[in-house]
Automatic annotation (TrEMBL):
GO terms for biological process: DNA integration. It comes from Marseilla massiliensis. One of its GO terms (molecular function) is nucleic acid binding. SUPFAM superfamilies: Ribonuclease H-like. This is DDE-type integrase/transposase/recombinase. Residues 2-59 form the Integrase catalytic domain. InterPro entries: Integrase_cat-core, RNaseH-like_sf, RNaseH_sf, Transposase_IS3/IS150/IS904.
Length: 99
């Protein structure tokens, strides 16, 4: 079912001017829909957290705030804010970690 598992990723986007920007994205593993995103010139964790906050706001709007799952999502945001790190994919081997 939707909103049971989310997958986060950061993709770099080369710009014509020679610079780079980054797409911080959260997708729903079941529906493959984007539930949160942020385009930024940096790789700061705060940018990824903004995408995660969008996903949480979407889930709360869809499911309501009386869900235990919603509380668990807020704990996840708090954990990220304290340096908890998720999985890391080695460049060129993303297919090994596909959901």
């Amino acid at each position: 079912a939707a909103n049971q598992l989310w997958v986060a990723d950061i993709t770099y986007i080369p710009l014509e001017c020679g610079g780079t920007c980054y797409l911080h994205i959260v997708t729903d593993a079941y529906s493959h829909k984007v539930v949160g995103h942020k385009v930024s010139p940096s790789l700061r964790a705060s940018e990824s957290l903004e995408a995660l906050r969008q996903a949480i706001a979407h889930a709360v709007a869809v499911r309501g705030t009386d869900s235990l799952d919603g509380l668990l999502l807020y704990y996840a945001v708090d954990a990220l804010g304290h340096g908890v790190v998720g999985g890391v994919v080695v460049l060129g081997h993303a297919h090994r970690y596909a959901v």
